[in-house]
Specification:
- The chain is an alpha+beta fold and 328 residues long.
- Helix content is 32%, strand content 26%.
- The chain contains 11 helices and 13 strands.
- The strands form 2 sheets. Strands 1, 2, 3, 4, 10, 11, 12 and 13 form an 8-stranded mixed beta sheet that branches. The chain has a 5-stranded mixed beta sheet with strand order 7-6-8-5-9, with helices on both faces.
- α1 packs antiparallel against α2 and α7 packs parallel to α8.
- It is globular and about 60 Å long.
- The N and C termini lie far apart (50 Å).
């Protein structure tokens, strides 16, 4: 039996990330993180309100950054259509955007209702991520050298030929030291570990594995993308202080538990979209011309394994007649 093709919500979600990216990119290099984030949130919320889903925000970014946010529990969409969990990061890389640096993206992921992990106020996780060849071969609880050895075997490379991507934070110093001692290369990034995790599953990225402690919202969003790409991520909650440990106990979160892909996104029907804000290795940033701009996006769906790269031109003269958003 040949099934009738289902509606690909990813092709609608890319309008959400395109709008958020266009709005945030106006603030590139202007030194105002909050303004860039607010512009992206406003754009994302407006377009989401017209998407035919019955959505609930499970992962919102504002709580960690004390930024304008699509808040956890907020209902989005028209209220009709598929009931879904929604994970958003209107600007993954607010500092990168405000300082005019590469690697900022706007991202969204949705999956069937009840399938996404909700870390609540626990805003950091310890993470490891790899692409399809090494999926099933990593272990968050194992030493860094062991995981590098496993990836080396999977990719048929010497450890010295591997490149690990790590957020450049003091808390990740042990990972940086361990990778160097094992003899692998490192690419340090200031922000943007969603794109970093996705890079492990891109054949031409030059990135083989992600290590380190980064945001919990980003972990769930990255897991959605890796679910579509066939990669793997493992995580463990990383409380910053006794207050967060107490919160974890009250909320029933096991701080010792290793969270698998199934724990993070327990669905085989996941949609993911991302649009570049500033130029990066994953996506090109917004490019402005006289009365228009171009965007570069990626759209993925786990059920079909489809991954689309999309470039679009946006005519500001026409958009201003149709939308309340300020596009330039």
């Amino acid at each position: 039996m040949v099934e009738v093709p289902e509606r690909n919500l990813g092709l609608e979600l890319v309008r959400v990330t395109e709008t958020a990216a266009l709005a945030a990119a106006r603030w590139q290099g202007r030194g105002d993180k909050e303004a860039a984030d607010q512009a992206a949130v406003d754009g994302m919320r407006l377009i989401l309100s017209h998407i035919e889903i019955d959505g609930t925000i499970i992962i919102g970014e504002g709580e960690k950054d004390e930024a304008p946010m699509l808040h956890n529990g907020e209902r989005v969409g028209t209220g009709r259509g598929m009931a879904v969990d929604v994970a958003v990061d209107p600007v993954d890389g607010t500092t990168l955007t405000s300082e005019g640096m590469p690697g900022a993206v706007s991202v969204i992921a949705i999956a069937e209702e009840g399938s996404m992990y909700a870390p609540g106020s626990l805003v950091y996780m310890d993470k490891i991520a790899v692409g399809p060849p090494a999926a099933g071969m990593i272990d968050l609880e194992a030493p860094v050298a062991h995981n590098l050895s496993q990836v080396s075997k999977a990719l048929d490379k010497d450890i010295s030929e591997l490149t690990a991507i790590i957020l450049n934070r003091p808390r990740n110093a042990p990972y940086i030291d361990a990778v160097r001692q094992a003899g692998a290369r490192i690419r340090l990034i200031r922000d943007g570990d969603v794109a970093g995790a996705i890079a492990t599953a891109q054949e031409d990225s030059g990135i083989d594995i992600l290590f380190g402690i980064g945001g919990s919202p980003e972990a769930v969003i990255a897991a959605a993308a890796l679910k579509c790409m066939g990669g793997e991520q493992q995580c463990r909650l990383w409380p910053r202080d006794d207050t967060e440990r107490a919160y974890a106990a009250e909320a029933g979160h096991d701080l010792e538990r290793v969270l698998t892909m199934k724990d993070l996104v327990n669905s085989d029907n996941v949609f993911f979209a991302a649009t570049g804000i500033t130029d990066g290795e994953l996506l090109d940033g917004v490019k402005y011309k006289h009365h228009n701009a171009t965007t570069h996006s990626v759209v993925m769906r786990s059920k079909t394994g489809s991954i689309r790269s999309m470039r679009a031109t946006h005519d500001f003269t026409k958009l201003r007649r149709l939308s309340a958003l300020i596009y330039e």
